[in-house]
Each structure stands twice: as C-alpha cells, then as structure tokens.
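Bumping with the actual sequence this time:
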Amino acid sequence: MINAELLAPAGDEECFNSALTFGADAIYLAGKQFGMRSAPENFDFDTLKRSIEKAHQKNVKVYVTCNTLPRNEEIERMPEYLSNIAACGADAFIIADLGVMALAEKYAPDVERHVSTQAGVVNYQSARVLYEMGASRVVLARELSLDDIAGIRAKTDPKLELEVFVHGSMCVSFSGRCLISSYLVGRDANRGDCAQPCRWKYHLYEEHRDGQYFPVVEENGGTYLYNSRDLCMIEHLDDILKAGVKSLKIEGRAKSAYYVAVTVNAYRHALDELYKNGDSKSLSPWIKEELEKVSHREYNTGFFYGTEPGQNTKDGGYIRKYEVVAVCDDYKDGTAYLTQRNRFFAGDTLDILPPDGISFELTVNTMFNDIGEQIESAPHAMQKLTVKTDTVIPKGSLLRKKRQ
C-alpha cells in the first residue's frame, strides 16, 4: 500500500479554497480554454497564477486540464496557451490528445504531462507507450476492474503514476467520450459542452400516430434509459491502493464549493484512518454519512469489482438530504458572523462542518441582521447575519440544515 494523493476538483476560486481548506493534496481545474467543463467559471491567467501561488504555499499541487479534443483551428492556439499556463506555475497538464502531448513537451517542457481518462487507457502496453512519450501519469479508463489496474501496475515502469476516479458522477460513455449530446442538441461533450441528455426522461413515438407518445415503462414515472448512478469508493480505498494507484480523484468541476468541501473532507479523513488502521473496512461511520449530506445520485462501486448494475431507471434527479444555509465569516466573543446561502429560521438545529472536518450540531436561538435587529428568519441570499452562541463556530465553517 502506497501513500496516495487526494486530488480535488475546482470549477472556480470558491471551490479551490474549499479544496485547500478541507485537505486536498492536489487540485485539478481548467483555464478559460480547452477544458472538459465549459459551464463552470474556470480560471483566467491572473486567477490561476494567484491560486497556484496560494496552493504551493500549502504544498498542494495544481493540475490544469487541456483535455478537449481540439480541431484544426483550435490546435493553432495551443502553443501560446500552454506557455501561458506554464508561466502561471502549473505542476501538470491533463491531456487527452496526442498532438497536445507533443506541443506540451515542446512549449512547456518543465510541466509534467498526465494522460486524461479520455485517452481510454485499458492495458499496460498503451500505458508503456505513453510513458515513453513523456507522460508521468496515466488517468486510467473508468471501465477497469481492480485486477485490470493491478495488471497494468505490474507491467509498467514504477515511475509511471496511476490515477483513478474514486467518487462522483459517471456517464454512459467510454471513458467520458460520448456523442449523445452532439447528436441530440449539437453540443459536443468532447469539447466541454455536454447537455447531459443521459439524465433525460425518454418516451417512444409510434410512426403512424403523429404527436402521440408512449412511455417505455419500467417504473411508474417512465424510463430513464441512460441514467447512471454515482461512484463512491470511500469504503474500498485500501483495495485501490493495494492495486498500485497513486492518485485518488474526485469528480466534480461543475459542482459547488460545498460539494468539494464535504467530499474532500470525507476522503481526507478516510485516508488518514486507512493509514492508521491498515484497512477501510473499519471506517468511522460518520465519514460515510458525510457523503449523504451532499446532493448525489444512488451510489455504487462502478467497474472496480466487475460489472455492477449502474443504471437508475427510477428517476433522473438527485438525492438531497441537506442544504447549506450559511457560511461563517468570523467568530468573536460569543458572536458568529454569517453570510446566508439558503433560508433558515431562529430555532433551527443546524449541522456545522468546521475546517477540521468533524461536524457538530447547534440550535440557533437568536439571530440579528446587519443593522442589529433581531430577526426570526434569514430569507435573503447573501444576507449578513450574526448569531449569539457560546459554542465556537470556526471561521470558514459551513452551516447546513436537514431537509424536511
């Protein structure tokens, strides 16, 4: 078993700061071009440079995704882009295209090159070739079993690092390559613009009954033909490390800062307990419970233990048991200074997630608005509040409420 890297996603600065606060060893993100998630805000060069400097002060690495499949007119912009990313201090590029691999070696030779999961590496021979091309790490295809991964590890140079996804959304594709979105709505998933049609609800049309549709029924609500469950390997990290994996990757560059905080915190504590106890089977129950406090689909273990039913035909929605209601900006002399995120009321019992990651409950008895008036509820987005409490709420804590 090796000492693994916990790799966190960040779609913007707030997510980036959450990853730093809650224990990531490395963070992956995108610039304004060539990343596989176009919906998040992502990072311009100034923001990227500032964020990388902040991360390096905490000995946290930053990897920049250049993992779209660029067309002819786009590849011409790549040399300047790679040089600029390198100048910002990035530790590695995550690359799917062989042409980009060659350009990165030429225009940013001091930046490591990681091969994206979209390259679809499923055997040791491919991994060997990519290592010979200069890759320091391969993000393996999601379709591999633990036995497959161990086989690749046994037959490749030990200096080649292996990375796998351990948590987050999965899609109906091969290693993230999918054409459904392109066919249906003209948005290319392989260039960061997926419309997620795999989550849609589908019906059947009969050719002679124009305008009429018929549900393809497996459950009362219709059928979700492509809707996959979410990956969760929190209780199986020991098996992954024994297979020779170096980096444990959390999916979620389009997710919220709250999602990043909770998932990174849970996996950080799970890894720390694994190093202490030697296995993941005696994991403290609260760690897995934390992952029930973020929005998610039904969990499963993906392909790690062979093919497991990964389709959820019941619905296309998320399981949402908790929501963030406030963030603690500061705590002084019995007063917590908060910024509201969702509506909550005086008298509510809240679940507090502090930066050390060990949650606790607190009942809000009295709260006041920014001009000192006592209020019964906090209904306004980003409203500034104060709460009187003898219980210390550390700066940066997330306050959340269980949904009814």
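The tokens above came from a reply further down the thread. The longest helix spans residues 257-277.
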